[in-house]
Amino acid sequence: MRILHFSDTHLGFNDLEILSVQGINQREADFYDAFTQVIDAVLETRPDYVIHTGDLFHRPHPSNRAISFCLSQLKRLSVARIPTIIIAGNHSTPRTRSASPILAALRTLDHIFPVFEEAYEKVIFDNINFHCIPHINDEEANLAAIGQCEASVDEEKHNVMMLHCSVGAQFMMEEYGERVYPRDKEGLFEKMDYVALGHWHGFGSVGKHPNVYYAGSTERTSSADTRNDKGYALITLGDSLEVVFHPIRLRPSHRLRINAQASADIFDDLRILGSSLEIEGALLTITLENLSATQSIDISNRDIEACFPTALNVQIQRKFRRTESAATAESVNAASLQEYFGAFLEEQTASAEEAARLNAKVATLFARYDEVTRDA
């Protein structure tokens, strides 16, 4: 028996002020493309079942476009008569019981089984039971659901448990309302043929449990996530468990770090680092570490971006060297900041001419700041 496990598709996610050729947010389009790749893989491999372990949508109330896209893709599985079980995650669960869960819309599709009622639900087939615990806001209700699951194991069939939570603190995402699975209930995993997890965005098994796996997300929701291991898991249940990860194509993402204190030419270093990477259409995060104030003034974001003209987006972070003068400057109010900064430049530069040149730049920047705040 084969089961395709994927998760955390976050349909409707958008980021960056960049539009695709179709006129929608490019990052939103990337998430739709990733989802489509998985659905294509389902129709090609024809597993017996498909399971999705939460955060189908990025928000409890997604846009019409996200809903329409999702329904059209899941309809492909419905027409193919492939049973698909989907549980709610924390992102797609309303925070109040009075709001209507978006996954209810999936009930209109044959062979699609959404589980979203903040309670344990068993989806039953002839040869397998899916024990589903969606995201549940209430802690007591969550514990009750685990207890119901434990009492519902059928040893005459295969048993697959579906959860959207952290199994151990190391898998926490630091998000509102996320659940941590109780450590004293982990013995339940041993009664399952497979435990399918959602919430953590990386693929992999969990600790000492050889049958407990996160499928990971299908796209990146943060610049801090540069994993290229996005895709789905194909599970084979038989005499033994086999879990094989299948990556999908993603927009390349890279993090570059430059130690400005040790660099003779920051731009040359950036070009050298970039020469070995796939930059076309990439998401780049560049961190300049140990910058001095004088260096930072001479390094514009525009000049850094020009080193990577084919990248989709370049995000730049600056981390400064901490000096005694900088610490003093932090304690003064904004009205006197330009004066303190000028004194700092005179202290840091090698000549009066260099200090004057940089102070002229600083004066221009403060003048622009005054114009913006005056017009605001």
TrEMBL record:
The UniProt record lists the keyword Hydrolase: yes
Domain Calcineurin-like phosphoesterase, residue spans: 1-201
Keyword annotations from UniProtKB, A to Z: Exonuclease, Hydrolase, Nuclease
Domain of life, source organism: Bacteria
UniProt GO molecular function: exonuclease activity
InterPro entries: Calcineurin-like_PHP (IPR004843), DNA_Repair-Maintenance_Comp (IPR050535), Metallo-depent_PP-like (IPR029052), Mre11_N (IPR041796)
Signal peptide: none
Keyword Hydrolase: yes
Official protein name in the record: Metallophosphoesterase
Species, as recorded: Sulfuricurvum kujiense (strain ATCC BAA-921 / DSM 16994 / JCM 11577 / YK-1)
